[in-house]
Amino acid sequence: xxxxxxxxxxxxxxxxxxxxxxxxxxxxxxxxxxxxxxxxxxxxxxxxxxxxxxxxxxxxxxxxxxxxxxxxxxxxxxxxxxxxxxxxxxxxxxxxxxxxxxxxxxxxxxxxxxxxxxxxxxxxxxxxxxxxxxxxxxxxxxxxxxxxxxxxxxxxxxxxxxxxxxxxxxxxxxxxxxxxxxxxxxxxxxxxxxxxxxxxxxxxxxxxxxxxxxxxxxxxxxxxxxxxxxxxxxxxxxxxxx
Length: 242
Ligand code: ZN
Description:
Layout: E1 2-6, H1 13-24, E2 30-33, H2 44-54, E3 57-58, H3 62-67, H4 78-90, H5 93-100, E4 105-108, E5 111-114, H6 130-136, E6 144-147, E7 154-158, E8 164-167, E9 171-173, E10 179-183, E11 197-203, E12 208-214, H7 218-227, H8 232-240
Parallel strand pairs: 1-2, 2-3, 5-6, 6-10
Antiparallel strand pairs: 1-11, 4-5, 7-8, 7-10, 9-12, 11-12
Helix pairs in contact: 7-8
Bound molecules: zinc ion.
């Protein structure tokens, strides 16, 4: 089976549509979304509608849950909070109900998916250091666990409970006898210095992971964000991919 894995769209419909076009040419069997469909960007309803139409699995992220009151938003930075508040005002009830019913982690066929971490999927922690990775090791029940949340694509390979290798390859074959955490990056707000959208093609037969980068019309998104008075910091960061 070939899976398209996408995460952190953040109300960016231009990025989402470009990624879907790229997915369409890649002959995938299923599309799974790992959370944060809303927050930051200008098109929450359009993104929700498209998401519900095209995906086979939808997880919730911290922004999704904050908008529907399922997780507190007080720890959000002021920019994220402003975007969450604005989204709460414009998002249709049908989409709020949908988001309120999402899970933060799941099994999809043979592999694990979560928005934040395998260890505590509902606590929205990050895996940024070796210690973060090692702390998650006891919770890895499957060969591969896919996550989003940090907006930074990476493959973490565990040699054992203590030793890891970190890879940033475009494409990599995974070893069936090792454990992996793969961060699939972000569609709508990349933060690895590359402003292009990121999605992952996972081929379960080859056991391979491929990061696909896709350009989209950033200026069009920024224009709409200005129109809706969304924070300048959020508008600017899209160009830099930070
Ligand atoms: Zn996010």
